[in-house]
Design goal:
Blueprint (H helix, E strand, L loop, with lengths): L1 H4 L5 H24 L3 H21 L8 H12 L7 H23 L6 H30 L7 H34 L8
Length: 193
């Protein structure tokens, strides 16, 4: 599918921004680890994987995701440092990871997705990740005696919030992909490179 495959056309300026943002993710990971929040540090490092993976796999430092999804990932994990509630930042970070993963798939592999299906994949991946996190919290409460899930009502509201963020992420991805494609189509064809 050629429409979304053109997301890889960022050039050196995009690569420089993407690597700068990957460095920001590493900085947030270090700051979180030094603050004793190892889970958040791990999340920041995990978000750096889809930013750097295409360049590592292609052995080309300019093969990076577009800077905008990478910036969304940095904003999500740096949000708590700026006062954003950690729970909401977590939902946003998972949505950013799903977006980066879908961008990697459509831009750097032979996988072909229509823009709508790619947006749905972002939303569904975000919701699935929240479900896995809820299961992990439940078993942590049962086996380790933690209190991550204080009530079923709060858990249900967590799912509602995660679903809202997932749908918003899917819509944002669809808008971004369409806007990116429109800008490219005025400069020439958008075929695969």
């Amino acid at each position: 599918m050629t429409r979304l495959r053109s997301l890889r056309r960022g050039g050196r300026a995009n690569a420089a921004l993407a690597w700068l943002l990957a460095g920001a993710l590493a900085a947030v990971a270090v700051a979180s680890a030094l603050a004793g929040d190892l889970a958040w540090a791990l999340l920041a490092l995990v978000l750096g994987v889809p930013v750097a993976a295409p360049a590592v796999a292609a052995r080309d430092p300019t093969a990076t995701v577009p800077w905008a999804p990478a910036l969304a990932a940095v904003a999500a994990v740096a949000g708590p440092l700026a006062g954003l509630p950690t729970e909401l930042a977590g939902y946003l970070a998972v949505a950013a990871f799903a977006t980066l993963a879908v961008v990697d798939l459509v831009a750097f592999t032979s996988v072909q997705l229509s823009p709508r299906f790619a947006a749905a994949s972002v939303a569904l991946t975000t919701m699935a990740a929240q479900a896995v996190w809820a299961v992990a919290q439940f078993y942590s409460d049962v086996w380790l005696g933690t209190a991550y899930i204080p009530s079923k009502t709060e858990l249900q509201w967590d799912f509602v919030a995660a679903t809202a963020v997932a749908v918003a992420a899917g819509v944002a991805f669809l808008w971004y992909a369409g806007r990116f494609e429109d800008a490219l189509s005025t400069n020439g064809p958008t075929g695969a490179t």
